[in-house]
């Protein structure tokens, strides 16, 4: 089978001496990249493309992404249809789950949320275009984006690669995006669709690939960049950090865990069936592979009451799986999940208050467990962990504070202030209601970082008479 081109190599880049590399996910996929000694040529071409990109106003860039979002949330859009097919082939996700993921992710890039993102992080939508008045400074200020941003992506969530590309382009940066071997197809479809909307954006982006052991290509790309954005596990992020210099701006989204916490009062007030449905939605979206998906739900109550709640969660997981089937399990994954299931069944035989339930073909699992020691991203496996009080939830989470990202907090109005305070103190960067963990807004400070602001540098004009005169 011949390899299909899966990257994005703008027309102007045809003059750059290049080579091909093949990724096998979902069939052979070919990517074009500079020959090892020619990354400087690609960087020079991107510098020219970035000049054209910088000529677009913020309003025009936002309008382009708004139109992109509108098209990509239309089920009949050709680029979306092709992307769904290719993502499903590469990852084993069902087409229904991929479509849901794209709707959640691509809906973020409409004009209103993007303007609010810029205002929240930069204080002005004009500050990327020109010097603006700064009364606190008694002068003027402007921010400038990187000339080139390298983005190293993971492939666990369909549609997620758009986020960093959007942020970088809002900052008027050219982009080299290195896709993940596990899902290498989406981003090129996205950039290709931009050709008909705003070609200056498409010309300023290259989508390519290098393997984790191809240090020479990674080093060459980063050498020509002003900024680097990295997604991945601790080892992958550490490899990128080794290539950075003090002059690089760096945004890292490394290993994280997320959990849910439900109080007994909330469970009674909202109803156990409704809460179970919310938990199923949080766990099952993105097949639990996103960092925002909970690996466990901590439930206030004694083990017996939580064991009685587990069948309702199992029923909700099954209903969700009927609407959005889980990704296909290859032999290795099936064996891993089966082994974990057998361990849980053995634990149940030792302690009858601990229980485990599974869907057909291990499409989901619900386990009542005593703690968080086995928490990990597990393909629709949720552990319900009983605690006698919300303080018990805090104690359970304390050892994981370094990695804590997203908490689905189900509490009553009177319980919320204290719970939100200790969750923030532990280190979480987002608190949402149960059922909403999988749909963060683009305005969220991802991992507690102002990710757009982290890319830019500022130039202030102060103690300058003409600047003050221009303000009056």
Quick structural gist:
With 472 residues, this protein is of the alpha/beta class. It is built from 17 helices and 18 strands.
Write down the Rg. 24 Å
Domains counted in the coordinates: how many?
2
Amount of helix: 40-55%
Low-confidence stretches: none
Using the 3D structure, state the CATH architecture of the largest domain.
3-Layer(aba) Sandwich
Structural classification:
alpha/beta
Number of helices: 17
Could you name the CATH homologous superfamily of the largest domain? Answer: Aldehyde Dehydrogenase, Chain A, domain 1
Question: What would the average pLDDT be, to the nearest integer?
Answer: 91
CATH structural class of the largest domain? Alpha Beta
Structure description:
- With 472 residues, this protein is α/β, with parallel strands linked by helices.
- The protein folds into 2 domains: 4-255 and 447-461, Aldehyde Dehydrogenase, Chain A, domain 1 (3-Layer(aba) Sandwich); 257-440, Aldehyde Dehydrogenase, Chain A, domain 2, CATH 3.40.309.10.
- It contains 17 helices and 18 strands.
- It starts with a strand and ends with a helix.
Summarize the helices and strands and which ones pair or pack.
Elements: E1 4-5, E2 18-23, E3 29-34, H1 39-54, H2 58-72, H3 78-91, H4 95-106, H5 111-122, E4 132-134, E5 139-144, E6 148-152, H6 161-170, E7 174-178, H7 186-194, H8 199-203, E8 205-208, H9 215-223, E9 227-231, H10 234-241, E10 249-253, E11 257-262, H11 264-270, H12 272-284, E12 294-300, H13 303-323, H14 331-350, E13 356-358, E14 365-368, E15 381-387, H15 390-397, E16 404-410, H16 416-426, E17 430-432, E18 457-461, H17 465-471
Parallel strand pairs: 1-3, 6-7, 6-9, 7-8, 9-10, 11-12, 11-16, 12-15, 14-15, 16-17
Antiparallel strand pairs: 2-3, 4-5, 5-18, 13-14
Helix pairs in contact: 3-4, 3-7, 12-13
């Amino acid at each position: 089978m011949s390899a299909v081109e899966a990257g994005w190599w703008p027309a102007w880049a045809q003059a750059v001496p290049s080579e091909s590399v093949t990724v096998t996910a979902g069939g052979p996929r070919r990517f074009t990249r500079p020959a090892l000694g020619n990354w400087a040529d690609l960087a020079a071409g991107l510098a020219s493309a970035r000049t054209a990109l910088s000529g677009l106003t913020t309003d025009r860039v936002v309008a382009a992404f708004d139109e992109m979002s509108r098209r990509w949330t239309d089920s009949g859009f050709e680029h979306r249809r092709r992307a769904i097919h290719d993502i499903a082939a590469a990852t084993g996700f069902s087409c229904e789950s991929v479509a849901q993921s794209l709707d959640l992710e691509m809906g973020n890039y409409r004009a209103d949320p993007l303007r609010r993102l810029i205002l929240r992080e930069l204080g002005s939508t004009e500050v990327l275009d020109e010097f603006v008045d700064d009364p606190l400074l008694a002068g003027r200020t402007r921010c400038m984006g990187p000339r080139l941003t390298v983005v190293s992506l993971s492939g666990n969530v369909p549609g997620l690669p758009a986020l960093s590309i959007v942020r970088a382009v809002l900052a008027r940066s050219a982009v080299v995006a290195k896709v993940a071997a596990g899902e290498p197809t989406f981003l090129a479809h996205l950039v290709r669709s931009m050709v008909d909307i705003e070609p200056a954006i498409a010309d300023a982006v290259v989508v390519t690939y290098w393997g984790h052991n191809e240090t020479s290509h990674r080093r060459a790309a980063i050498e020509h960049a002003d900024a680097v954005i990295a997604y991945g596990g601790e080892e992958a992020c550490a490899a990128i950090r080794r290539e950075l210099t003090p002059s690089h701006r760096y945004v890292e989204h490394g290993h994280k865990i997320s959990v849910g916490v439900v109080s007994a009062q909330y469970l009674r007030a909202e109803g156990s069936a409704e809460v179970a449905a919310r938990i199923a939605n949080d766990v099952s979206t993105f097949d639990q592979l996103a960092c925002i998906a909970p690996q466990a739900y901590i439930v206030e109550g004694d083990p017996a009451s939580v064991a009685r709640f587990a069948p309702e969660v199992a029923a909700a997981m099954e209903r969700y799986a009927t609407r959005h089937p889980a990704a296909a399990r290859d032999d290795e994954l099936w064996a891993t999940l089966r082994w974990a299931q057998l361990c849980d069944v053995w634990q149940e035989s030792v302690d009858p208050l601990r229980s485990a339930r599974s869907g057909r073909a291990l499409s989901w699992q619900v386990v009542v467990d005593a703690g968080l020691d086995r928490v990990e991203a597990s393909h629709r496996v949720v552990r319900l962990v009983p605690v006698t009080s919300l303080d018990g939830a805090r104690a359970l989470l304390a050892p994981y504070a370094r990695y804590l990202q997203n908490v689905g907090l189900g509490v009553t109005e009177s319980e919320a202030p204290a719970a939100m305070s200790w969750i923030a103190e532990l280190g979480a960067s987002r608190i949402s209601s149960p059922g909403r963990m999988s749909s963060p807004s683009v305005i969220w400070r991802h991992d507690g970082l102002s990710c757009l602001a982290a890319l830019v540098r500022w130039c202030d004009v102060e103690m300058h008479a003409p600047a003050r005169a221009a303000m009056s």
